[in-house]
Design brief:
single chain, about 525 residues, alpha+beta, 4 domains, about 70% helix, elongated
């Protein structure tokens, strides 16, 4: 619902921007070069907003923030050519807002919208300095520029500190995205040089150009993520790529002819093209709503096609869920039903209460097994520590001292953070269920894209005995080994000194896979 509201706001923004262009055209139809260039750039950004937002069917927050940033930039570029006092105030007010949103977008992109240390302090600094700068507009222009300079420096210092503190995490992102970022840099340099030489005679043609750099550097990366969602436009369910291209090309030709006949020039053509893409955007919004509610025959056919591809996996999931309902829920419900007849007795009431409490625990654990909930505001270590605390509370009769060694700045991208969560849960649960020891040691590290998880205890089980045991009796460990091997990793079981066992899991973390999963989360 929030994503739909955001898309409607972006649509309203498009209408307002087109209306402002129309008012400007009515005042002065034949613009000079200084007015035409901002108009064309703003129109291109507006068209890009409608495209990216339409493709963001997974409700990715980073992509949504990028769309909002492009919308702000389109207004900023368009208002830069205005000489009106009111529009000048709006133009100056957009500067600190765009800078604040740009830094937040870069950090959100680098950390994939996951928690990191000093995140709250960073957001407080960015938002606080932005609000203070906006208040400065109401005082005087000198105060505004002073506060804007302070905001600029404070934001950069906070950003540099965060990058240095989490340098390993940032290095992994750049290692994964270096091709896109390098290509973006080359494109930015080519466009910058082309723009500079073509507008050399235009006064102040490079003013405030630095504010566009953050979105330009990550523009290619964002579009690379969007392209991973093959045919993600809702209209692609109605038209194929060739038909969509033909439809847009026909619209461009028709509007170009109308602009020529009416002698409207680039200004009128830009307005009509923006209106065309705004119309296609609202069509995508309407189709997306219908598809989510399955109120369309095409959607039902598409769902059937997808279901065929995922049938085997879903059947396995259904079987596991049915076994859970039968073994852990249905039997307890039947017991409670039989005891209701004797519910007037105190001891029976106590048994019913305990049974229902156990069912509540079973259901919550199963929900967590199907889809672990990692809080984005917490770091990886804090989420895993919460998991260990929860497991400890599930075994009140086992007094095991668990030592968890993990860096506060540990960085695991999706889907590896969830996968390691499942590994950690299964291995620690085995310690509580099967180990006779009183201590457990857990270490988790990630260095140069290699994840190493060690779980050891001081029990009496021997590694050779465990390795030679029937796999049906250790299905959890067998499934862990199989899944890790499928991801090009390895699981090693060895003796822990002086006694006990140690399970070491080594797993490579691949950035290209993580960013493809990042947009699909």
């Amino acid at each position: 619902m929030k994503q739909t509201v955001l898309k409607l706001l972006l649509f309203i923004n498009s209408i307002l921007l087109i209306a402002y262009m129309g008012l400007t055209a009515h005042a002065d139809l034949h613009l000079n070069t200084r007015g035409v260039i901002p108009l064309i750039l703003s129109s291109l950004l507006l068209i890009d907003v409608t495209y990216i937002s339409s493709c963001n069917i997974r409700k990715n927050k980073t992509i949504s923030l990028f769309c909002g940033l492009l919308a702000l930039e389109s207004w900023y570029i368009l208002l830069s050519a205005s000489g009106n006092s009111i529009t000048n105030i709006i133009f100056f007010a957009l500067s600190p807002v765009i800078w604040c949103v740009s830094i937040k977008f870069i950090l959100m992109f680098l950390f994939q919208n996951s928690g990191y240390k000093y995140q709250k302090l960073m957001n407080l600094c960015l938002t606080g300095t932005c609000i203070c700068t906006l208040i400065g507009i109401l005082v005087s222009s000198k105060i505004f520029f002073l506060l804007y300079g302070i905001q600029f420096m404070a934001s950069w210092l906070c950003f540099i500190f965060t990058v240095i503190y989490h340098r390993k995490r940032i290095a992994f992102v750049f290692k994964s995205e270096w091709k896109h970022i390098t290509f973006s840099f080359i494109v930015v340099m080519v466009l910058f040089l082309t723009y500079s030489f073509s507008t050399m005679r235009v006064p102040e043609h490079l003013s405030n150009f630095g504010i566009y750099i953050p979105i330009l550097l990550f523009w290619v990366s964002v579009h690379g993520i969007i392209l991973n969602e093959h045919n993600s436009l809702p209209l692609s369910a109605v038209f194929n790529n060739c038909q969509l291209t033909l439809l847009i090309f026909t619209g461009v030709i028709i509007f170009s002819l109308i602009a020529i006949v009416l002698d409207g020039g680039y200004f009128l053509l830009s307005i009509m093209l923006d209106a065309l893409f705004a119309f296609l955007y609202v069509c995508n919004i309407a189709l997306d709503l219908n598809f989510k509610k399955e109120q369309n025959k095409i959607m039902r056919e598409s769902s059937y096609h997808v279901a065929l591809q995922q049938l085997q996996r879903e059947e396995q999931l259904n079987l596991e869920f049915a076994n859970f309902l039968h073994d852990d829920i249905l039997q307890d419900l039947l017991s409670v039903k039989n005891m209701i007849k004797k519910a007037d007795r105190h001891e029976v009431q106590k048994i019913i209460t305990e049974t229902l409490d156990n069912m509540n625990t079973y259901i919550r654990e199963q929900m967590q097994d199907y889809h672990p909930m990692l809080l984005p505001k917490l770091t990886i270590k804090e989420n895993y520590q919460n998991l260990l605390d929860g497991i400890s509370q599930s075994f009140p009769n086992r007094k095991i001292c668990v030592s968890f060694d993990c860096s506060d700045s540990l960085f695991l991208v999706e889907p590896y953070n969830i996968f390691v969560y499942r590994l950690l849960k299964e291995l620690v649960m085995n310690v509580y269920k099967h180990s006779t020891g009183e201590k457990a040691w857990i270490t988790l590290t990630q260095d140069k894209g290699i994840i190493i998880l060690n779980v050891s205890d001081n029990g009496t089980v021997d590694a050779d005995v465990l390795l030679s045991a029937d796999k049906l009796k250790h299905r959890g460990l067998a499934m862990i080994t199989e899944r890790v091997n499928d991801m090009d990793g390895s699981v090693t079981i060895s003796n822990n000194h002086p006694h006990g066992i140690c399970v070491q899991t080594i797993l490579p973390m691949k950035g290209d896979v993580s960013y493809q999963h990042f947009v699909s989360r």
